[in-house]
Amino acid sequence: MAAFATAAELASWLQVASVDTATANLQLNIASNAIRTYCGWSISQETDVEETVDGECRHRVWLPTLRLTAVSEVLDDADTLTPDDYQFTRRGSLIRQGTRYWWSNEVTVTYTHGWDPVPDVVKGVCLAIAGRGYLNPVAAKATTDTAGPFTRTQSFNGSVDTSMFQPAEMRDLSKFRIQDIA
Fold first, then answer.
1. Helix 120-135 with 21-39: angle, nearest 10 deg
2. What ranges do the domains of the chain cover?
3. Dihedral sign, Cα of residue 20, residue 118, residue 40, residue 45
4. How many other CB atoms are there within 10 angstroms of residue 116's CB atom?
């Protein structure tokens, strides 16, 4: 899956004439994948995604998206449904029409979702993370904070977790993050 920004956009973000393209692309891919992992879905537009979800005895099933734009096929077990049999919402839910519940624990949906282009706020977070990694790759793995006589070092061991994000970036991404639905 493509990064949310390009090497040229990273150079512009950093306000430099050019960047090493390979390093920039690596940092942009790392940042984009960190955002996707944090948010729980791709965010960028994907077509003909096939997902199987558990629908047994449920009125509503959820797809891993927050921007569902089209549903091209729905199978409840092996039965192909028509658009009159279900309704979908932009936030990723499919509601069974006519009967109250989905019958099977295997509801297979083929759909299109995401943004093209991605929202500027997502691109901005991507560029900020990639910029920090590009300018100081060691800092992306560990940080040291000093306050008076106290020093604290955090090591991130190259893992993708929320430590890559500044608090404001997490707030910016909150509306793109899938929350667990019980």
1. 130
2. 7-42+118-176, 46-113
3. negative
4. 10
CA-CA distance, 151 to 167, in Å (whole number)?
21
**Integer Cα distance of 33 and 41 in angstroms:** 10
SS3 string, 28-50, reads HHHHHHHHHHHHCCCCECEEEEE
Evaluate whether 73 touches 119 at the Cβ level (below 8 Å).
Answer: no
CA atoms within 13 A on the CB side of 176: 24
pLDDT band at 166 (very low <50, low <70, confident <90, very high): very high
pLDDT digits (tens, 9 = 90+) for 40-87: 999 999 999 999 999 888 889 999 999 999 999 999 888 899 999 999
Determine phi and psi for 100, rounding to 5 degrees. -80, -25
pTM of the predicted model as reported, rounded to 2 decimal places = 0.84
Helix (H, G, I), strand (E, B) or coil at 25: helix
Question: 57-91 as b/e, with b when 16 or more CB fall inside 10 Å?
Answer: ebeebbbebbbbbebeebbbeeeebeeeebebeee
